[in-house]
Design a protein that fits this description.
zinc; ADH_Zn_CS; globular; Rossmann fold; 2 domains; GroES-like_sf; oxidoreductase; Quinone Oxidoreductase, Chain A, domain 1
Length: 349
């Protein structure tokens, strides 16, 4: 809502939920967003997913949070205003769009010019540090405002913009096709989306889970096989099988059996933020031309590609919905590990 105070100044008040200190509960917070920048787009929030990264930022686990902090970076909403330079970029007021982890990038460094804006050499700006989506409105540079294709389910699409692109990026990076054999470690918020995407692409999918009680649920997601990650013999029996193994967990495991499970030319790719360094025996890589890699989220083009695939193949995260007014309850639900498998907030300001 825009309210003119004088002829010289204008205020745009945005309502949000913010943490005022590390680890604090979120409180209602209003701020003046000021004049819309020429290349920015303002989006009225309909839904916003909760990611573990939101908790990390609220708690300042990464040492870069500033307060009051408005988290939320899995936004689905409708364009409510366009900056002057954003008006000829293909976006229209009223159009349904999404905003993920990144809110802006410099647009002129080698990474940006080559289409790798997520690796902007001058520092892309995370949506959370740009004032995020736990709000009635949010702003971002037009490149990072992703058009939603027809047929996408708005209520569940938000997590694709962070968790989804995080596991989709390795599939693009390693040229995964329908003939590929792929393993996924950890079937939670990231892993379950990876299985759904791999199934949509026609891959042979093996899920590694430490919870045998989830086997039938994981098979229903699209996995061909579920392997108990705590069973050394089951892991050893898979030696030399996988073109790609994606790790989504952030705890340290015995990684050697997974390296050994790679086929020749295979890759072990981590998107889980494991804090303890990986111990990689050189010969587990040298023998068979194997490699270990990682990746961040994706570029605007990769995000658009993911959303088109999700709409066409009906790939949707499994979500639980809370009204945004119950945001602290929803955050605690995620903290307690009870989410099955992503939590989405519906704006109700």
């Amino acid at each position: 809502m825009s309210v003119s105070t004088t002829k010289e100044t204008a205020m745009t008040i945005i309502k949000s939920y913010a943490a005022h200190d590390a680890g604090a509960e979120l409180e209602l917070y209003e701020y003046d967003a000021g004049e819309l920048k020429p290349e920015d787009v303002e989006v009225e929030v309909e839904y916003c997913g909760i990611c573990h990264s939101d908790l990390s930022m609220i708690d300042n686990e990464w040492g870069m949070s500033t307060y009051p902090l408005i988290a939320g970076h899995e936004v689905i909403g409708r364009v409510s205003a366009l900056g002057g330079s954003a008006q000829n970029k293909g976006l229209k007021v009223g159009q349904r769009v999404g905003i993920g982890w990144t809110a802006s990038s410099c647009e002129h460094c080698d990474a940006c010019i080559s289409g790798n804006q997520v690796n902007c050499q001058h520092g892309s700006v995370p949506t959370i540090l740009n004032r995020g989506g736990f709000a009635d409105k949010i702003r971002a540079n037009w490149q990072w405002v992703i058009p939603m294709p027809e047929g996408i389910d708005a209520a569940s699409a938000g997590p694709l913009l962070c968790g989804g692109i995080t596991v989709f990026k390795p599939l693009l990076k390693h040229h995964i096709t329908a003939t590929s054999r792929v393993g996924v470690i950890g079937i939670g918020g990231l892993g379950h989306i990876a299985i759904k995407l791999l199934r949509a692409m026609g891959c042979e999918v093996t899920a590694f889970s430490s919870n045998p009680s989830k086997e039938q649920e994981i098979l229903a997601m699209g996995a061909d096989k579920v392997v108990n990650s705590r069973d050394p013999q089951a892991l050893q029996a898979l030696a030399g099988q996988f073109d790609l193994i994606i790790n989504t967990v952030n705890v340290s495991l015995d990684w050697i059996p997974y390296f050994q499970a790679l086929a020749w030319g295979g890759n072990f790719h981590t998107v889980g933020a494991v804090m303890k360094p990986f111990e990689v025996p050189a010969f587990s890589l040298i023998a068979g031309d194997r490699s270990v890699s990682g990746s961040a989220t994706g570029s605007p083009h990769e995000l658009r590609s993911l959303m088109k695939l999700a709409a066409r193949a009906k790939v949707a995260p499994q979500t639980e919905e809370f009204p945004m007014s119950r945001i602290n309850e929803a955050l605690q639900h995620v903290r307690d590990g009870k989410a099955r498998y992503r939590v989405v907030l519906k704006a109700d300001f």
